[in-house]
Design goal:
Elements: H1 2-24, H2 31-37, E1 41-45, E2 52-53, E3 56-57, H3 69-77, E4 82-85, H4 103-118, E5 122-126, H5 147-152, H6 154-174, E6 182-185, H7 206-224, E7 234-237, H8 243-249, E8 261-267, H9 271-274, H10 295-308, E9 316-321, H11 329-348, E10 352-357, H12 382-394, H13 402-407
Parallel strand pairs: 1-4, 1-10, 4-5, 5-6, 6-7, 7-8, 8-9, 9-10
Antiparallel strand pairs: 2-3
Helix pairs in contact: 6-7, 10-11, 11-12
Length: 415
């Protein structure tokens, strides 16, 4: 009888061990997905190193003062785990064939990266507005990543690929000794100007194919830069960083190392609420809402990303998300609810997200600012917004669920 009891215990212990091992090895729990989650709720130094006019980028070109160590200390103190530093390189790149990056500009990027790292933040840098819009002043190095022209002319495409190679080689070599805290993001919101509703819908996939080629070229160049770049995590965006277009059309680059690519997407959904503030409420209790763009629509979008990537062990992060500040406290309650709901929904699906902060402290259209870019102090009611995001993401109370957030949505003042 004792032998039988011991045998049963041994069997149960063996089954438990197998179950634990199986759980440990699930793709959704692998090292890469865990790394993606470590970005947590992050923050964008937006409209800063990506700011540009007249074909050249300037750190203070769109009104934000130069970032300091206090900036990043404040960001970390607020509870953010990561910072994305969008960088526009145009106007600071020399001619072919070397496409040499201006030393002072690269030095400033490196200084900001060092400040963020010193503050304990993970850091993402990228190629940002170099591919946005139509060319403006070619003599000053205007937008050189032109997708429609590359689709129409293979010679243009080859030239862009060569420049992407040389630019990422230089960035990679500059940061070759930096560890995993630093992530490279190949490109940003590449498109034809139609924000996903342009010729990409009718060209038989030509734009998607070219973007996939560019992502491959960028990854190859980063790996070729040597040092820590050989295994560095790399963020790879789909078309215009749109989640649905990414799921449908992104072909992840072939990589010489396993599980070191991350899928980068953006969401200001629905834009008429989160971006332009044409509507001032969101969710099932709102009245002044965008029809059909509610909690379920957002969850459906996240589920598509989860099923396509996270289930296969591929990390996903929202390089940008957010909602603009409202003028009234009643409307601001819906904004705080939006943050709590979407951040909890992302956390449940192992997806990190970095808030887009452009420094604009006004309410309404484009008013995304929550932290002063020069001092690291909160702007206006920025602390409320940050707490809603960070606390919802980090809340491990088993009673704090997506349903409990939903059940505590604010009531509309427009009844």
């Amino acid at each position: 009888m004792k032998k039988l009891t011991f045998a049963i215990i041994a069997l149960l212990l063996s089954m438990a061990a197998c179950e634990a091992q199986e759980k440990k090895q699930r793709p959704i729990d692998n090292e890469a997905v865990q790394f993606g989650m470590s970005l947590g709720i992050g923050w964008n130094l937006g409209n800063q190193m990506d700011a540009h006019y007249d074909g050249c980028s300037y750190e203070e070109g769109w009104g934000n003062k130069a970032a300091t160590q206090q900036t990043f200390n404040g960001v970390a103190k607020a509870g953010f785990k990561s910072v994305r530093i969008p960088v526009t390189w145009m106007g600071h790149i020399g001619p072919a064939p070397t496409y040499t990056i201006e030393r002072a500009w690269l030095d400033r990027v490196a200084e900001l990266v060092s400040m963020a790292h010193k503050a304990g933040l993970k850091v993402i840098i990228n190629i940002h507005h170099d591919g946005f819009g139509a060319a403006d002043t070619p003599s000053k190095g205007a937008h050189w990543i032109d997708l429609p022209k590359a689709v129409a002319d293979d010679e243009v495409n080859q030239r862009i690929k060569q420049e992407l190679t040389m630019v990422w080689l230089q960035i990679g070599k500059r940061f070759a000794n930096e560890g995993d805290y630093l992530i490279f993001e190949t490109l940003n919101e590449i498109q034809d100007g139609g924000w996903g509703g342009g010729a990409n819908r009718t060209d038989g996939g030509a734009q998607y194919r070219v973007l996939n080629e560019w992502n491959q070229v960028c990854v190859d160049a980063i790996r070729a830069a040597g040092g820590q770049n050989v295994t560095r995590y790399i963020g790879v965006p789909g078309y215009v960083c749109n989640p649905d277009l990414t799921v449908e059309n992104l072909v992840l680059p072939k990589d010489e190392v396993e599980n070191r690519l991350m899928v980068a997407v953006h969401s200001y959904d629905p834009w008429d609420y989160a971006g332009s503030a044409e509507k001032n409420e969101w969710g099932h209790t709102g009245i002044d809402v965008v029809p059909g763009a509610d909690e379920q629509a957002y969850v459906n979008m996240l589920n598509r990303l989860f099923n396509m990537y996270i289930r296969r062990g591929i990390p996903v992060y929202f390089g940008e998300f957010g909602a603009v500040r409202r003028a009234s406290q009643a409307d601001e309650e819906f904004r705080l609810y939006y943050f709590r709901y979407v951040c909890k929904a992302m956390r449940d699906r192992r997806i990190a997200a970095l808030y887009w902060d452009n420094g604009n402290s006004k309410s309404g259209n484009d008013g995304f600012g929550v932290i002063n870019h020069a001092t690291g102090r909160y702007i206006g009611n920025g602390e409320q917004a940050v707490r809603a995001m960070v606390d919802s993401w980090e809340n491990n109370d088993p009673n704090y669920t997506l349903q409990s957030v939903y059940d505590n949505a604010p009531e509309s003042s427009r009844k």
